[in-house]
Amino acid sequence: MKISGRAALSATILPVLLAGTAGIAQAQENTEAAPADTEIVITATKRAERLQDVPISVSAIGGDQLSKSRVTNADDLVTKVANLQLTSIVGDNTPIFALRGVSMSDYSLNQSSPVATYYDEVYKGNFAFLGVAMYDLERVEVLRGPQGTLYGKNTTGGAVNLISRAPELGETSGYLNLGYGNYNRMDASGAINMPMGEKAAARVAFTFARADGWFKNQLPGEPDLASVREYAVRASVLLEPSDGVRFVLRGSTSYQNPRNYGIYAQPTEVHRVGLGKREIEANVTERRRARTYSLALTGNIDVSDTLTVTSITSWDKGKLSFYEDTDGTATELLEIPYYDKANQFAQDLRLTSDTGGPFDFILVAYYNREKVFNSTTFEIGKDVDSDGVPGVTDADCAIGLPLGCLFANSFNQVKKSFALYTDMNYDITDSITLRGGLRYTHDTGRQSDFESNALGPNGVLVVNLIPPSSLKYSTDNISGKIGFDYKLADGNLLYAHYSRGYRASSFNAQAFFDPSELSIAKPEKVNAYEIGAKTQFAGRSVTLNLAAFYYDYRNQQFINVDPGTAAQTLLNIDKSRIMGGEAELSVRANDMLSLRAGVGLLDSKIKKGTVSGVDVSGNELSNAPSLTFNGGVDVTAMDSDSGKLSLHGDVSYSSSQYFEVLNVPRLQQGSYAILGAHIDYETADGRWNASIWGKNLGNKFYFTSRVDLLAGFGFDYNHISAPRTYGVTVGHKF
């Protein structure tokens, strides 16, 4: 295997970084100032296991740290986890994650990411299901690589698991936090845990936030964009009727209706004359609306001393709509309203063994049905008068096509997925364990009632561009995993494994102008090879976890936007390869000082692929920076009878990256670093607390997604980062 210059550089700098950070550490669990003997327990492998005993690359972030660090939406996770990136092209709280360079290069609202998101083990594939969820969490777990033998929905990139706090038997308890910050941000969050007898309990949690927009609109009388306006409520009931029987019923809803994001159009000398970096002249300022509802029943029944049956039955419903000022200016050159309505039902039935002997297994049957209605409209130059008659009418579209027209498409989509899979382990010796698993997946999809029309500015039909059409697919796939791990005498762990990931086919939601744009993307596949080590030493005060991987990536699904015509086609990138690694460490120097740091390395290359008639072989994949880093320091400045005062600082860094596979030089995002900090005070009895916090303290300006529309529309389409934010939070526990 030929090693590229970048890979060679990565191989050189990784040990240097590790040596240089022997006293700087990244807590794999990212828990600030945790005791040296703390055992971090996760459920990433569907069993409660100590983090250091799990032979896969996984990071876990504690709920308390998420709250104190102001990780209030899923977008912020990228600053905490090595080799996790995102594009925000769909807007805040609807991230498209990229993990180890595996990403979804498609912003269509009918698509599902190759990095799966789960809420309490329930898969949330469609954007309409995501909503507001980063509150009252026990922890977040991020698993890297294909997870087909552990999780219901097969994915090629990995999984992000949000795990909420469950009700607890015992005494009534709870908390309430209130905060205020710049941009007139006001927020509140809290929870109450209530016993209901000896065998039942309930927990109700909520979050609420409002803030003015930070993208300042310079059009007179128009509101600022990128505001915050949201709430969410989650209610959970725990029932333990007898020993070995446990049920948790969760119901939640969330609502968001902020002013939508703004688009930063370039070249700036044409589209942003006289405007500051976070100023805009936007004529479309409608509110973005997202509503979610969900129900999930999780049951665990010990059918014997060695076998447990787990059932997870879930239902989700959601709507997402927003009107995008795509050109980012006061003109009506290009504007796009999006609408997505979805519902899903899923059933996960699992049998888990705990024999105490050399062999254990997990056997699972999984079913998911997702139904989506999607509509999108390209509004192109709808203020253009083409017929010479005063006023813009529907006749202007007929004469000036495509100017003065609304190109509207809509369709229904139903996807079903059925899978049988197993994960097994066999102890060959006291030190060596063989692990493996197989998965069979049957996926079907149907896109029906697809139609696209050119309408006049008043919505009158001018011409039918794509007549009512239907597409469908049916695929079967067998994937799996095999590997082994070796437990050293001191308890440290070495592992190696091979796994194959699979992502089902998908439909193009962006066909507008011709029936030839309707297409089905072929399934993605990833052959993933990984080795790693999980170590602790110096009395467990130092944790060092390492992983290195090589991916053979086939048929990555990709939406291509023709810069000249804006026609969008759904393609597959034939073949790519990705290699790299992560190093995550933590050091508790003493009772007063903890340090943490993490590094991610990537070297991605397309080996075969054509986009818009251009051979992209040799180009980098999108959302795959060669180096990412995150780290911080936690200092307990005072811990006495009068209370505890602690200081926490964080930094995250990303090297340059592309957001598209043509690797257009002007669209490359350069390297950048983000600083954050918080100062916390807690009374000696732990009942009262206060925090001063800040995010993006350096007010760094960078792009979070970019699309080339220069040739056809005369501008580059960009999303930009949020500015510096800061505030204070006070809380009470009872």
From TrEMBL:
Chief place of localization: membrane
The TonB-dependent receptor-like beta-barrel domain, residue ranges: 251-697
CDD domains (alphabetical): ligand_gated_channel (cd01347)
Subcellular location: Cell outer membrane
This protein's GO CC annotations: cell outer membrane
Coiled-coil region: none
Biological process per Gene Ontology, one example term: iron ion transport
Membrane topology: Multi-pass membrane protein
Span of the signal peptide: 1-27
Keyword annotations: Cell outer membrane, Ion transport, Iron, Iron transport, Membrane, Receptor, Signal, TonB box, Transmembrane, Transmembrane beta strand, Transport
Residue ranges occupied by any TonB-dependent receptor plug domain in the UniProt entry: 51-159
InterPro entries cross-referenced by the UniProt entry: Beta-barrel_TonB (IPR000531), Beta-barrel_TonB_sf (IPR036942), Plug_dom (IPR012910), TonB-dep_rcpt-like (IPR039426)
Superkingdom of origin organism: Bacteria
One Pfam family, short name: Plug
SUPFAM superfamilies per record: Porins
The keyword Transport is assigned to this record: yes
Full protein name: Iron complex outermembrane receptor protein
High-level lineage: Bacteria, Pseudomonadati, Pseudomonadota, Alphaproteobacteria, Sphingomonadales
